[in-house]
Design brief:
It is a single chain. β2, α6 (105-114) and β3 form a beta-alpha-beta unit. 42% of the residues are buried. The chain has one domain (10-213): Rossmann fold. α1 packs parallel to α3 (50-61) and α4 runs parallel beside α6. It is 42% helix and 17% strand. By secondary structure, it is an alpha/beta fold. The radius of gyration is 16 Å and the shape is globular. The chain has helices spanning 24-32, 37-45, 50-61, 65-77, 83-92, 105-114, 149-157, 171-174, 193-198, 206-213, and strands spanning 10-13, 96-104, 122-125, 127-129, 135-138, 164-168, 182-186, 201-203. It has a six-stranded parallel sheet. Strands 4-5 form a two-stranded antiparallel sheet. The structure holds magnesium ion. Magnesium ion is lined by residues 14, 16-18, 168-170.
Length: 214
Protein backbone atom coordinates (compact mmCIF):
# COMPACT_ATOMS: atom_id res chain seq x y z
CA UNK A 1 0.00 0.00 0.00
CA UNK A 2 1.51 3.33 -1.09
CA UNK A 3 1.86 5.96 1.55
CA UNK A 4 -0.41 8.98 1.20
CA UNK A 5 1.20 12.35 1.79
CA UNK A 6 -0.44 13.98 4.76
CA UNK A 7 -1.60 17.09 2.96
CA UNK A 8 -4.68 17.57 5.14
CA UNK A 9 -4.79 16.83 8.85
CA UNK A 10 -8.52 16.13 8.72
CA UNK A 11 -10.59 14.63 5.93
CA UNK A 12 -14.37 14.69 6.28
CA UNK A 13 -16.70 12.70 4.07
CA UNK A 14 -20.37 12.99 3.30
CA UNK A 15 -21.96 9.52 3.34
CA UNK A 16 -24.97 9.13 1.02
CA UNK A 17 -23.96 9.06 -2.67
CA UNK A 18 -20.33 9.66 -1.61
CA UNK A 19 -18.98 6.78 0.50
CA UNK A 20 -21.97 4.57 -0.22
CA UNK A 21 -23.96 4.63 -3.44
CA UNK A 22 -27.36 4.62 -1.71
CA UNK A 23 -29.48 7.45 -0.31
CA UNK A 24 -30.46 5.92 3.02
CA UNK A 25 -33.72 7.79 3.44
CA UNK A 26 -34.88 6.60 0.02
CA UNK A 27 -34.09 3.00 0.99
CA UNK A 28 -35.99 3.40 4.26
CA UNK A 29 -38.94 4.79 2.29
CA UNK A 30 -38.93 1.74 0.00
CA UNK A 31 -39.16 -0.53 3.06
CA UNK A 32 -42.19 1.49 4.19
CA UNK A 33 -43.54 1.51 0.59
CA UNK A 34 -43.78 5.29 0.45
CA UNK A 35 -42.07 7.77 -1.87
CA UNK A 36 -39.71 10.56 -0.82
CA UNK A 37 -37.04 10.42 -3.57
CA UNK A 38 -38.22 13.60 -5.29
CA UNK A 39 -37.83 15.56 -2.04
CA UNK A 40 -34.38 14.08 -1.44
CA UNK A 41 -33.15 14.93 -4.93
CA UNK A 42 -34.48 18.50 -4.72
CA UNK A 43 -32.74 19.03 -1.39
CA UNK A 44 -29.46 17.58 -2.66
CA UNK A 45 -29.67 19.82 -5.75
CA UNK A 46 -30.27 22.79 -3.49
CA UNK A 47 -33.69 23.53 -4.98
CA UNK A 48 -35.41 23.25 -1.60
CA UNK A 49 -33.92 23.79 1.88
CA UNK A 50 -33.27 20.53 3.75
CA UNK A 51 -35.09 21.75 6.85
CA UNK A 52 -38.27 22.22 4.82
CA UNK A 53 -38.49 18.50 4.05
CA UNK A 54 -36.50 16.71 6.77
CA UNK A 55 -39.27 16.26 9.33
CA UNK A 56 -42.02 15.66 6.76
CA UNK A 57 -39.89 13.01 5.09
CA UNK A 58 -39.27 11.15 8.36
CA UNK A 59 -42.92 11.48 9.39
CA UNK A 60 -43.85 9.69 6.21
CA UNK A 61 -41.14 7.00 6.47
CA UNK A 62 -41.35 6.42 10.25
CA UNK A 63 -38.21 4.23 10.36
CA UNK A 64 -38.26 1.52 13.01
CA UNK A 65 -35.25 -0.35 14.39
CA UNK A 66 -35.63 -3.22 11.94
CA UNK A 67 -35.75 -0.85 8.94
CA UNK A 68 -32.66 0.98 10.24
CA UNK A 69 -30.76 -2.32 10.56
CA UNK A 70 -31.67 -3.34 7.01
CA UNK A 71 -30.59 0.05 5.66
CA UNK A 72 -27.36 -0.06 7.67
CA UNK A 73 -26.51 -3.32 5.89
CA UNK A 74 -27.23 -1.68 2.51
CA UNK A 75 -24.85 1.19 3.30
CA UNK A 76 -22.05 -1.32 3.87
CA UNK A 77 -22.99 -3.49 0.90
CA UNK A 78 -22.93 -0.47 -1.43
CA UNK A 79 -19.60 1.03 -0.38
CA UNK A 80 -18.14 2.94 -3.32
CA UNK A 81 -15.14 1.26 -4.99
CA UNK A 82 -11.83 2.40 -3.55
CA UNK A 83 -13.34 4.07 -0.50
CA UNK A 84 -12.08 1.50 2.01
CA UNK A 85 -8.58 1.59 0.57
CA UNK A 86 -8.36 5.38 0.62
CA UNK A 87 -9.65 5.64 4.20
CA UNK A 88 -7.21 2.94 5.33
CA UNK A 89 -4.38 4.95 3.73
CA UNK A 90 -5.53 8.15 5.39
CA UNK A 91 -5.67 6.41 8.77
CA UNK A 92 -2.21 4.96 8.21
CA UNK A 93 -0.90 8.48 7.51
CA UNK A 94 -2.37 9.74 10.78
CA UNK A 95 -5.19 11.72 9.17
CA UNK A 96 -8.32 12.28 11.25
CA UNK A 97 -11.22 10.90 9.18
CA UNK A 98 -14.74 12.09 9.92
CA UNK A 99 -18.20 11.33 8.59
CA UNK A 100 -20.53 14.32 8.39
CA UNK A 101 -23.99 13.35 7.28
CA UNK A 102 -27.64 14.28 7.35
CA UNK A 103 -28.39 10.56 7.61
CA UNK A 104 -29.71 8.82 10.70
CA UNK A 105 -26.79 7.97 12.97
CA UNK A 106 -27.58 4.30 13.75
CA UNK A 107 -28.03 3.61 10.04
CA UNK A 108 -24.47 4.71 9.20
CA UNK A 109 -22.55 3.54 12.29
CA UNK A 110 -21.90 0.04 10.88
CA UNK A 111 -20.55 1.68 7.71
CA UNK A 112 -18.25 3.83 9.83
CA UNK A 113 -17.07 0.76 11.72
CA UNK A 114 -16.40 -1.04 8.42
CA UNK A 115 -13.87 1.75 7.71
CA UNK A 116 -12.58 1.62 11.32
CA UNK A 117 -13.89 5.14 11.94
CA UNK A 118 -14.81 5.43 15.64
CA UNK A 119 -18.28 6.57 16.68
CA UNK A 120 -17.06 9.88 18.09
CA UNK A 121 -15.99 10.87 14.58
CA UNK A 122 -19.44 10.24 13.12
CA UNK A 123 -21.64 13.34 12.95
CA UNK A 124 -25.22 12.49 11.96
CA UNK A 125 -28.81 12.89 13.15
CA UNK A 126 -29.99 10.89 16.17
CA UNK A 127 -33.29 9.00 15.88
CA UNK A 128 -35.48 7.79 18.74
CA UNK A 129 -37.54 4.62 19.16
CA UNK A 130 -40.22 3.58 21.60
CA UNK A 131 -39.93 0.43 23.72
CA UNK A 132 -41.27 -1.66 20.84
CA UNK A 133 -38.61 -0.35 18.48
CA UNK A 134 -41.03 1.89 16.59
CA UNK A 135 -40.17 5.40 15.38
CA UNK A 136 -40.49 8.06 18.07
CA UNK A 137 -38.90 11.10 16.42
CA UNK A 138 -35.47 12.51 15.63
CA UNK A 139 -33.11 15.09 17.11
CA UNK A 140 -34.85 18.21 15.87
CA UNK A 141 -32.01 20.32 17.30
CA UNK A 142 -29.40 18.67 15.09
CA UNK A 143 -27.79 21.20 12.76
CA UNK A 144 -27.37 18.35 10.28
CA UNK A 145 -31.12 18.30 9.62
CA UNK A 146 -30.72 21.78 8.13
CA UNK A 147 -29.18 22.99 4.87
CA UNK A 148 -26.52 25.05 6.68
CA UNK A 149 -25.64 22.31 9.21
CA UNK A 150 -22.51 20.90 7.62
CA UNK A 151 -21.10 24.39 7.19
CA UNK A 152 -21.83 25.24 10.84
CA UNK A 153 -20.31 22.00 12.10
CA UNK A 154 -17.15 22.20 9.97
CA UNK A 155 -16.74 25.85 10.85
CA UNK A 156 -16.82 24.93 14.57
CA UNK A 157 -14.37 22.03 14.07
CA UNK A 158 -12.01 24.32 12.13
CA UNK A 159 -11.37 26.40 15.24
CA UNK A 160 -8.61 23.94 16.20
CA UNK A 161 -6.69 25.08 13.11
CA UNK A 162 -6.37 21.64 11.49
CA UNK A 163 -6.17 21.75 7.70
CA UNK A 164 -9.35 20.14 6.46
CA UNK A 165 -10.65 18.64 3.24
CA UNK A 166 -14.34 17.83 2.79
CA UNK A 167 -15.83 15.57 0.14
CA UNK A 168 -19.48 15.37 -0.83
CA UNK A 169 -21.97 15.35 -3.67
CA UNK A 170 -24.83 17.53 -2.50
CA UNK A 171 -25.88 21.13 -2.01
CA UNK A 172 -25.49 20.91 1.78
CA UNK A 173 -21.89 19.75 1.23
CA UNK A 174 -21.15 22.56 -1.20
CA UNK A 175 -22.51 25.03 1.36
CA UNK A 176 -19.48 24.17 3.54
CA UNK A 177 -16.95 24.71 0.75
CA UNK A 178 -15.68 28.09 1.94
CA UNK A 179 -15.12 27.06 5.57
CA UNK A 180 -12.70 24.22 4.71
CA UNK A 181 -9.28 24.26 3.05
CA UNK A 182 -10.45 22.13 0.15
CA UNK A 183 -13.94 21.06 -0.89
CA UNK A 184 -14.11 18.30 -3.47
CA UNK A 185 -17.36 17.55 -5.28
CA UNK A 186 -17.74 13.79 -5.69
CA UNK A 187 -19.55 12.75 -8.87
CA UNK A 188 -18.90 9.00 -8.85
CA UNK A 189 -22.49 8.20 -7.80
CA UNK A 190 -24.65 11.26 -8.52
CA UNK A 191 -23.95 14.39 -10.54
CA UNK A 192 -25.65 17.50 -9.17
CA UNK A 193 -25.07 20.18 -11.85
CA UNK A 194 -25.27 23.10 -9.41
CA UNK A 195 -22.67 21.50 -7.12
CA UNK A 196 -20.25 20.58 -9.91
CA UNK A 197 -20.51 24.05 -11.48
CA UNK A 198 -19.61 25.77 -8.21
CA UNK A 199 -16.86 23.41 -7.00
CA UNK A 200 -13.21 24.14 -7.74
CA UNK A 201 -12.26 20.46 -7.34
CA UNK A 202 -14.27 17.54 -8.74
CA UNK A 203 -13.54 13.81 -8.47
CA UNK A 204 -15.51 11.09 -10.23
CA UNK A 205 -13.71 8.18 -8.54
CA UNK A 206 -11.79 7.42 -5.37
CA UNK A 207 -8.54 7.19 -7.33
CA UNK A 208 -9.07 10.78 -8.52
CA UNK A 209 -9.99 11.73 -5.00
CA UNK A 210 -6.78 10.20 -3.70
CA UNK A 211 -4.76 12.44 -6.03
CA UNK A 212 -6.60 15.52 -4.81
CA UNK A 213 -5.88 14.60 -1.17
CA UNK A 214 -2.22 13.70 -1.63
MG1 LIG B 1 -24.61 12.92 -0.28
Amino acid sequence: MAKTTKRFERVAFDVDSTLSSIEGIDELAKLRRVHVEKWTEKAMRGEIALERIYEARLDRVRPNIRMIAMTAALYVEHRVAGSARLIAELHKSGVEVLLISGALRPAILPLAHSYEIPGHRVYAVDVYFDTRGQYAGFDTFSPLARASGKRELLSALQRDGKTTAFIGDGATDLAAANVVDRFIAFTGVAQRPQVVAAARYVASSFSQLRQLLA
